Backbone:
């Protein structure tokens, strides 16, 4: 278990929690600038850790700020450093958390890379309350989320998230911006809920179709999802394509042709 001095305090770096502290003030400021491009009143920071973003967030006037942090040592550090957070820190894993506000809210965070995909699916669970999410991810994950059909990294997370959110790939971040430096580059993305998501038969059918299609992505759709459709439907030329060639709207439209 490694330790490092961050903000003048010795903190433990827990590999099991994927902890890398953001130390580059310019990166923190850019994230906060993007965050403030639109008005916000309720803000949740996920995984504040050493407070690289928190130090800026506590100074945004007129917002209700909450932080969710699973590591007790970091909770104690944040409470000592930012006394104004006394009743605003939730000591829990975000994966187990309920929405922290009754109404719409915004999410921001330098997310732990080892649970970043799970956090994205948590955003899907919260989509009806989410106004905006701005988050730091491993670059490969960020590229996958933002990828369009025809791109080799386009996959399940691309389709499921883009069905409900507009994805903006904001900027990339070098390894040296962190303490300790991770072995991968990072990128910041923004999710904004679509006013109207793509039209599908039902959410369950959509999720099953997308996951089944990409589970055998080298095969044509006809072979990958054969069991989900009546035989007559499979004659359509669309089924000669592979999953990565179909748009989000294509997948949504196909749900109406699936077995009942």
Residues:
């Amino acid at each position: 278990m490694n330790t490092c001095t961050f903000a003048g305090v010795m903190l433990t770096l827990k590999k099991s929690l994927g902890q890398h502290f953001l130390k580059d003030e310019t990166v923190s400021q850019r994230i906060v600038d993007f965050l403030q491009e639109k008005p916000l009143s309720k803000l949740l920071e996920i995984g504040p850790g050493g407070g690289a973003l928190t130090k800026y967030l506590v100074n945004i006037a007129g917002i209700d700020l909450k932080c969710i942090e699973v590591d007790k040592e970091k909770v104690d550090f944040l409470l000592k450093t930012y006394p104004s957070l006394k009743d605003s820190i939730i000591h829990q894993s975000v994966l187990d958390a309920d929405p922290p506000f009754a109404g719409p809210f915004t999410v921001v965070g330098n997310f732990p890379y080892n649970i970043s995909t799970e956090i994205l699916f948590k955003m899907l669970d919260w989509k009806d309350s989410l106004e905006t999410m701005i988050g730091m991810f491993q670059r490969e994950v960020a590229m996958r989320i933002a990828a369009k059909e025809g791109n080799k990294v386009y996959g399940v997370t691309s389709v499921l998230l883009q069905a409900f959110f507009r994805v903006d790939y904001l900027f990339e971040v070098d390894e040296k911006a962190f303490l300790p430096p991770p072995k991968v580059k990072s990128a910041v993305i923004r999710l904004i809920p679509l006013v109207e998501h793509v039209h599908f038969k039902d959410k369950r059918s959509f999720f099953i179709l997308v996951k089944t299609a990409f589970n055998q992505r080298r095969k044509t759709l006809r072979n990958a999802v054969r069991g989900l459709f009546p035989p007559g439907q499979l004659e359509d030329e669309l089924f000669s394509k592979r999953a990565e060639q179909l748009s989000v709207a294509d997948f949504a439209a196909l749900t109406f042709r699936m077995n009942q």
